[in-house]
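go over whats below:
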Amino acid sequence: MTSFDPTDPVDPRAFDAVVGSERSADLDAGLDTDPALAAAVLELETHAASEGWGQPARLYALVDTALLAAQAPGLAAAMGLDEDDAAGSLTPVEQDELPGDVSFESAVAEIAWPPQVAGCAATLERLVLPPEVDPEIPADPTAAAEFARSHPLRQEVRMVVGVTRAGAAYCALRMRSHDDEHSVVGGTDLVPGLVQLLSTTFDDSTFDDEEQDT
């Protein structure tokens, strides 16, 4: 199982871009980014920002908007989607709240999406430390989490990460200390551990095994 630990590093470029002297809206500008996925992730980031900090982790299925409009026209209408929205876009559909008695990693590891789901995304908050602190972080996960919580250079960050069944990924990060839309940093692999974890939910063999068990 791919491991995503709360103390896993965020790409140092993201930290530097937000709290450093120069900021960048997209650290992967010019690279091969899936525009539909990036748009969906940024939409979720804006929605999460409107709800404020201290929110629980959330998981979303990303569905091809044209497919959603064709198969569930009532739902599409209720969401305010029209033909213009449907062309080459992904619609986030929020899933049930993740159980509070298990870790985010454990909950996501149990998920296998049906074929009609084109991608998925997650929003969660965590603490990050600047790259120069990495050598001081304890190896024990519990001690590392406590180290991060008490460190004077800690930064609260909201991560919105999306992946597609086809293998694309996009991340959007916002620091609480720079809580404005112009300081949101985007890139394809800013949180590699979370990208990998979400990607495992599209292991077709896992979905096939679950179907056989039902």
Remarks:
- Confidence is low (pLDDT under 50) at residues 1-7, 17-24.
- The chain has one domain: 12-213.
